[in-house]
Write a structure and sequence with these properties.
Layout: H1 13-27, H2 39-46, H3 50-62, E1 66-69, E2 73-76, E3 81-84, H4 90-96, E4 101-112, H5 115-121, E5 128-138, E6 141-151, H6 159-164, H7 167-173, E7 178-189, H8 192-198, E8 205-215, E9 220-229, E10 233-236
Parallel strand pairs: 3-10
Antiparallel strand pairs: 1-2, 4-5, 5-6, 6-9, 7-8, 8-9
Length: 242
């Protein structure tokens, strides 16, 4: 295994190994399904102790990049979906990177906008809005649970449309160009219901995203509250200095 550790570095050896293995998984050098040698053999190859190697493997298991299976050993599972923070849809981003997106519409309907929601969307209180919740998959594995509100006067929506296409694709098909959005990213733990939907344990870490998007006319076109599995998903930001 082409891994070299720096014994003079203050970074713990197990973490150096874990990071290098994670890079190999993310780059595809260790593709999904790859079986790793047992911990003793890996430790011998890298000149490390078994406890150090075991801790590196456990770190990646906890991160959801490796899985241990009885009778099979340690295998690589799906790499994380890393998404740049841009004004794009998750469906489009997954399709672009070959992650085979699919959607289950958990709920779909219309309701009257509350005062708070109406203020966010810039519509009269009580105006009709679509409200729907979708479970988004990547490569047939649950990745995100997304709840959205869309003003009813913008376009006609159906659950069937949302099963087949991403929301931003449907916007484009109806002549709506999303131009700007306010977005907040956070984190919290999963409720029991969220954990069941996403294939996680109760209390597992989740990334959260709240977005209010506007079209080129300055109209608010969607309000979304989304949660993502932290073990399968991360946001990627590029920062520049003065």
């Amino acid at each position: 295994m082409p891994i070299r550790v720096d014994r003079s570095s203050p970074v713990p050896l197990y973490f150096q190994v874990a990071q290098l293995l994670e890079e190999m998984i993310e780059s595809g050098e260790l593709p999904m399904g790859t079986r790793l040698d047992n911990e003793a053999d890996l430790a011998g190859q890298l000149g490390l102790s078994k406890p150090t190697m075991r801790r590196a493997i456990e770190y990646l298991v906890d991160r959801g990049l490796l899985v241990r299976r009885r009778g099979i050993g340690t295998q690589v599972v799906h790499a994380k979906v890393t998404r740049e923070v841009q004004l794009t849809s998750l469906y489009d981003d997954l399709a672009k990177t070959g992650r085979d997106p699919s959607t289950t519409v958990v709920s779909f309907g219309t309701e009257q906008a509350s005062d708070a929601l109406a203020a966010k969307l810039g519509i009269p209180a009580g105006a009709p809005v679509y409200v729907f919740e979708r479970l988004r998959y990547a490569d047939a594995e649950p990745l995100a649970l997304m709840r959205n509100h869309v003003p009813g006067q913008l376009m006609r929506l159906s659950a069937a449309d949302l099963e087949t296409h991403g929301l931003y694709h449907l916007f484009r098909a109806n002549g709506i160009s999303v131009r700007i959005a306010k977005q907040a990213i956070g984190a919290r733990t999963a409720t029991a219901a969220e954990a069941r939907a996403l294939g996680e344990r109760k209390g597992a870490p989740l990334l959260t995203m709240e977005r209010l998007a506007y079209d080129e006319q300055g109209r608010a076109v969607e309000h979304g509250r989304h949660i993502y599995r932290a073990s399968r998903y991360s946001f990627d930001l590029t920062l520049t200095g003065w």
